[in-house]
């Protein structure tokens, strides 16, 4: 199995923030969604992968090539779209397309035209006169039409209206029809990550809390509702992320659901009335709160 990227022991410090000893892989052909609160380190990770920032320690390989040694070859084959990237406001989209295709032989002019229609953009419009959403879509068009093998997207749908968001998400899903292409995207839209990603990575305060296949990650988490006189010690079980009491009612959010856990809870006196899956949004909030409760600030 080829890897779209691999990080081993990667760290980057921007005092007081530090991305710490990060080990992370993405198999080729997959889409990874990266979630985390503001300042968790998502953009830093994307910038490290694209060679815009150098790590303090560790090893980074992108498309099986070492970075930064092979960054010229890597940059030909990856595409980074991030809101802080500058387009030339005095120039049109057509000018940008012409400019970029001179440097990227894989530029796909027919696909660029297709995306222009899909994103409802005009080639002759100067970018300074575009709305925020139009500029986001223009940047995505310019990145996607290069047909990069690894697409790195920093909050690709922020500020887009629901129609534009749907078009962008469908365009991303199309990218993966070619099984050699891969995507890493960060997003605060947990529903989008839940819908689109094969793998979910969770960054918190510069630490990777988890990264795994979406189905197994979502499957591990459950919301349990019931009654009973559970001891306070249950709250400290590693599987239990949250225990709340409301009158005689108990609500537990567990991060590692299993038959053995249910038996232990039953032995503690839990009379279960509901055992439900959790959305990524609920898992996100519960994880951040349990980190805060354990003394890790958000
Ligand atoms: N070039 C830089 N110089 C100094 N500090 C930086 C720099 N880049 C990032 N940081 C700091 O690193 C931390 C992580 O920032 P980063 O942009 O990676 O977070 P993020 O998860 O993308 O956040 P958001 O969701 O708000 O976009 C922040 O505390 C930020 O201030």
From TrEMBL:
Whether Metal-binding counts among this entry's keywords is no
Lineage, highest ranks first? Bacteria, Pseudomonadati, Pseudomonadota, Betaproteobacteria, Burkholderiales
| Annotated ABC transporter domain residues | 1-230
* Record key words, sorted: ATP-binding, Cell membrane, Membrane, Nucleotide-binding, Transport
Q: Could you tell me one molecular function GO term of this UniProt entry? A: ATP hydrolysis activity
Checking SMART domains in the record gives: AAA (SM00382)
Q: What is this protein called?
A: ABC-2 type transport system ATP-binding protein
PROSITE patterns this protein is in?
Answer: ABC_TRANSPORTER_1, ABC_TRANSPORTER_2
Name the SUPFAM superfamilies on file. Answer: P-loop containing nucleoside triphosphate hydrolases
Protein's organism: Inhella inkyongensis
């Amino acid at each position: 199995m080829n890897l779209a990227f691999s990080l081993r022991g990667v760290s980057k410090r921007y005092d007081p923030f530090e991305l710490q000893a990060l080990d992370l892989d993405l198999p080729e052909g997959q889409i990874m969604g990266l979630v985390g609160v503001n300042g968790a380190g998502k953009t830093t990770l994307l910038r490290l992968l694209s060679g815009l920032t150098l790590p303090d320690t560790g090893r980074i390989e992108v498309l099986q090539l070492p970075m930064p040694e092979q960054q010229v070859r890597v940059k030909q084959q990856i595409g980074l779209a991030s809101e802080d990237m500058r387009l030339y406001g005095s120039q049109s989209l057509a000018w940008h397309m012409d400019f970029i295709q001179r440097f990227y032989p894989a530029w796909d002019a027919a696909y660029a035209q297709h995306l222009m229609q899909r994103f409802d953009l005009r080639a002759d419009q100067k970018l300074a006169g575009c709305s925020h959403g139009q500029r986001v879509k223009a940047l995505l068009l310019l990145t996607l039409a290069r047909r990069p093998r690894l697409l790195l997207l920093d909050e690709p749908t922020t500020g887009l209206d629901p129609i534009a968001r749907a078009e962008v998400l469908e365009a991303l899903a199309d990218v993966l029809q070619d099984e050699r292409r891969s995507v890493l995207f960060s997003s605060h839209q947990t529903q989008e990550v839940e819908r689109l990603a094969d793998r979910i990575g969770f960054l918190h305060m510069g630490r990777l809390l988890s990264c795994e296949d979406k189905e197994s990650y979502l499957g591990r988490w459950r919301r349990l509702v019931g009654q009973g006189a559970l001891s306070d010690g249950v709250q400290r079980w590693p599987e239990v992320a949250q225990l709340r009491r409301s009158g005689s009612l108990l609500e537990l959010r567990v991060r590692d659901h299993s038959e053995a856990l249910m038996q232990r809870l039953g032995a503690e006196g839990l009379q279960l009335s509901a055992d439900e899956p959790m959305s990524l949004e609920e898992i996100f909030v519960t994880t951040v709160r349990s980190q805060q409760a354990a003394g890790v600030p958000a």
